[in-house]
Amino acid sequence: MDSLTVLILDDEQRVVDEIEEFLKNKDYRVYPATDADTAYEYLEKVNVDIVILDVKLPGISGLDVLEKIKSTYPDIEVIMISGHGDMGTVIKAMRKGALDYFPKPFRLADINNSILRTKRFVELSKKLKTAEASIDLLSRKLLENIGGRLLGISPAIKQLKEMMVKVSATDNTSVLILGESGTGKELVAHGIHYLSERSKGPFYSVNCSAIPESLFESEFFGHKKGSFTGAMEDKQGWFEIANNGTLFLDEISDMPLVQQAKLLRVLEEKKISKVGSHKVQSVNVRVITASNKPLENMANENRFRLDLFHRLSIFVIEIPPLRDRREDIPVLMEFYLNQYANNLQKDITGIDERIYEMVNANPLHGNVRQLKNCIERAVILCEGSTLLPEHFRLSKPEELVTEIKEDYYDDLDEIFDLETNEKQLILKALQKANNNKSKAASILNITWQSLDRRMKKFGLE
Question: Where are the extended beta strands (E) located within 67-157?
Fold first, then answer.
């Protein structure tokens, strides 16, 4: 942070001069005033960080000046000084927003220490305001461009938004988004794009699991007319369509190994060549990928190219499942209720408390998508003003078993799936891996961090 700007307001010229000289020697920018009108003029013209304010001023109380400063310039911090340091005045000053208070005579070193403490406070406040402004901008961008929102009040969602803001400030950094189905991976990718400098360029989304291997090169890089049977005209590939923008590759884990090598080459060289053409074309595309499978485990098991994994995972964002951030559920339910009630022109304003209990008892393996679909169905069925339990249909949660049943599964490697019974499967995996978390995570087909989070959830540390 640059040097702070300090305004001194005291009716004693000697006091003003002493503080001014001392602070200037400490490299602060200082503006002296002996009356309120002069101080107000400085406040209108200069971005002041801290005001050192005397309680007794000619024609006006310093406490009134304090109140006006905090109401007009709430970000400015105020240090009060006074020759009458009675406790009542101190309490009033603090209640009106003063950050510190010194009775006269005071040591200039104490004033400087207070400024240093205030400086750290001001720096933190500015950083928080910048982060909050960026997150607000993220919400507006998503709403304006795709009509969606990244909703939630949990620390996990706040951290997710902060990570999106940070990586969007870079231009070419590859981003890998990990998370279960229905957690909103494409929404996160959209947010990064629309916050970045590439927001004026295209955002193109591709589901890698839906691409036939025979059409991979044609779809990604394009083809020339007549280059193969059925190529009736020139075709742009996805890299060309997304040029100067963002290409989002969902379910990247389903891309065949042979095609992964071709993708890696384009990412490294930033050049493509259409099928049937020898012409090389440069492309400027940011690639964001997503997977609901543990890509790192797949790479270590040679089911995904390790070099491509490292190229794609320069910046990793992991979206926690909805069951791990249940404080977000009421926010999401209220939002989707209002959305679907408005769309269907229904006067539904409430949700029966029993529904919240039903939702909280459910593992919500479908995450936000499952909750959203349940709300939509309930709104369609509801004929009154309140959603009732009979309007809801949620899959029944599996019973969570504390002790391992020996005959639970015979072949764990084939059917280990957290969606069947999380706690039982985690216990079985830990037993199979001799309590080695990394091995257990590999068996469960999840990341180590995801396993650790689930173990804490079930009290299995």
Answer: 77-82, 100-103
* 345 and 453 within one domain: no
Widest distance between CA atoms in the chain = 94
Contacts of 27 (CB under 8 A, 6+ apart): 3
In contact, 240 and 283? CB cutoff 8 Å? yes
Residue 95 lies in a domain: yes
Model-level pTM greater than 0.90? no
Q: What's the confidence (pLDDT) of residue 379? A: 93
Residues 192, 146: contact at Cβ < 8 Å?
A: no
CB contact at 8 A, 115 and 4: yes
b (16+ CB within 10 A) / e for 58-95: eeeebbebbbbbbeeeeebbbbbbbeeeeeebbebbee
Domain boundary among 318, 353, 373: 318
The CA distance from 96 to 362, in Å, is: 48
Residues of the chain with pLDDT under 50: 1, 128, 131, 396-420
Do 294 and 154 lie in a common domain?
yes
**Is the same domain home to 199 and 303?**
yes
Residue type, 377: R
pLDDT attached to residue 324: 92
Taking residue 341's Cβ as centre, other Cβ atoms within 10 Å add up to: 18
Give the integer Cα–Cα distance in Å for 326 and 344.
27
Both 314 and 332 in a single domain?
no
Whole-number Å distance between alpha carbons of 34 and 8: 8
